[in-house]
Amino acid sequence: MSVDSEWMPKSALVNRIVRGDKQALAELFSLNRDRLWRMVNFRLDRRLYGRIDADDVLQEAYLNAAQRINYFLIEASQSCFVWLRMIVSQTLIDIHRRHLGAQRRDAKREVSIHGGWDSQSTSFSLSFHLLAHLTSPSQAAVRAELSEQLDAALGIMSDLDREVLVLRHFEELTNRETALVLNITAQAASIRYIRALGRLKDVMAAIAGTTND
Amino acid sequence: MIEPGDELCGKKPPMTESRDKYEGEIDGFPFTPETSRDWGRDPLEFLLTEIAERRRNGEQPSVEQYVARHPELSERIRELFPMVAAMEHWKTRKEATMLKGRMSQQLEVRRIGECRVLRELGRGGMGIVYEAFHERLDCRVAVKLLPLRFFGASKFRQRFEREAELAAKLQHTNIVPVLQFGVHEGFCYYVMRYVEGVSLDWIIDRLRASNGIVYAEEITQLRSGAVTGELTVTTNANAGTAQPPAGSSRSVRDAEKPGHWLNVSTFQHRSLRRSSWRKFARIGLHVANALRYAHRQATVHRDIKPANLLLDKNGRVWITDFGLAEGLERDPHNDEAELSGTLRYMAPEQFSGRFDERSDIYSLGITLYELITLRAAYAAETRLELVHSITQSSLPRPRQLIPDIPGDLEAIVCMATAGDPDRRYQSAGEIAADLICFLNEKPVRARRPGWDFRKFLRQRLFAKRQG
């Protein structure tokens, strides 16, 4: 294989996982822990704060990943991280259903293991974060707080635009990972990202405009 | 094949999409060349990704650099670059909120490092302060547990350690010494000497109350509030081991060396009154001396305010939290800054990201202003109004509020709180010198604001034109 030495180490890890080495899976998991932890915290329903801890979710997700280790070769061939993230997301959905009841979310919003990602399934608890501190964008604007303006701006953007920005910046996904998560091409992912940034700029400008009035 | 164990090199990938390189390829799988994976990627997206990655690695990439290199994209780079920065800032903020939210819910601590926790003194957005017993040093200490959780060797943790090391090097009679620092279950903490005293904001509140007198004995009783700084004191005044009010304050007087004003206790008469101008000046002098020392060591405080100044029963002032956790706690855009009342003491230039030792002098000035006038320097309904008033430096003169304030003391406070750093005292030594002059009834360098004849004329002229 014509690989440079830089990514050789992880290849070895991956090959151990393919052979069913759970220790290697744990190592891979901890390599990606920072990003996964942030994702869980961000997407955990506010009503579960205090009851559920991100670390508990990740622990449960790891056990789920270990159960699926035989599928690793097929499911993770595109990206190990995206595979882990998908398992964490499914775990999160299970936990939400267990604690908040099934009626809250319909089946359509679930993540299918093979079909990649439905943007709605990743947006479900964003609104709790975005709307927790404010009631309207103009109200936030008055407070002249950049982060709150961003909360407001993201709150009124379309689900897809918001999702792309959250994936790229909050969860620190690469363009390729974003493409896989959204099940689109790398080209489409890059175009959507740029478009979302442009819309963010417009919305922010509009919010700033109301402040200056 | 590389041996297991070599695998977790943990090296952070340097730049653009480099994380992709870390994605393992599986033996026997068709290898997808890097180029075809990225086929058709928007070139602008490529650049913005690089910018975001560089920010995450602690660099400060400049727009101009990218514009110069890619003139064809210059307009769009200028448009979208600030959005990338804003999103990254937003992430940091959210992350900090999550870390903090986590901590307050679950934490119950019995031991921190070598310290046995005796009780919680207070908690707030900035962390939890405990009174503890240090078993190796065999003494009572205060431990501040910061609500920052670090995974591995993150850049925040490195910064915390660097700051704590600097803080531990400061040895001054008016600075609460940092004895130790470390990480407890992922949370950073630092161990400080336990100071039996009360914070100046408590003093200000008490003086503002109807009788307007604080007695030295009260400090002994209230010592629990001492190290909490901006945190809410959760213990009541007579909790636990508080000593009964001393029948006589002999020990207090013994500590004094009469004749030398510097050593004369602030509580010489065992009390502090609204008109204790000289004692207020001495408090200012203690702080100025400590600042002068710290500034010489190239350490700035960044958060001088009444809540960070402790007064012990001997009348000595102690500055807490020197040079610590400045990144997260001292961010002017931080919500916590507003909640803990920090914003009010920030120099106007801090809002545009500039800070030097003169900003500490400004904060000391505002603290003295509040101490002599007993009212908030800036009272505003909203954050925006507050920031606006601070940047406009629209501070009423202390003697307009309380005519009894000595003119020279007012002049010192006004010079320290000048909006333009160039018009302030240029060093802590200068304000210390003026406070010494005031205490010795010699003329001070600071000009009384009313005496600025030219400014007066200018204002008159301006008023006429307006009329």
**How far apart, in Å, are the first and last alpha carbons of chain A?**
62 Å
Distance between the termini of chain B: 86 Å
Number of strands of chain A: 0
Oligomer: heterodimer
Number of helices of chain A: 13
Radius of gyration of chain B: 26 Å
Helix percent of chain A reads 55-70%
Largest sheet of chain B: 7 strands, antiparallel
The pair of chains with the biggest contact is:
A-B, 65 and 61 residues
**Total of domains of chain A:** 2
Report strand % of chain B.
5-15%
In short:
With 213 residues, chain A is mainly α. Chain A is built from 13 helices and no strands. Chain A has two domains: 5-103, Rna Polymerase Sigma Factor, Chain: A; 119-211, Winged helix-like DNA-binding domain superfamily/Winged helix DNA-binding domain (Arc Repressor Mutant, subunit A, Orthogonal Bundle), CATH 1.10.10.
What does this protein structure show overall?
Chain A has 213 residues and is mainly α. Chain A has 13 helices and no strands. The longest helix of chain A has 27 residues. The radius of gyration of chain B is 26 Å and the shape is globular. Chain B is built from 18 helices and 12 strands. The N terminus of chain B is likely disordered. Chain B is α+β, with helices and mostly antiparallel strands. The longest helix of chain B is centred in the first third of the chain and has 33 residues. The interface between A and B is large, with 65 and 61 residues.
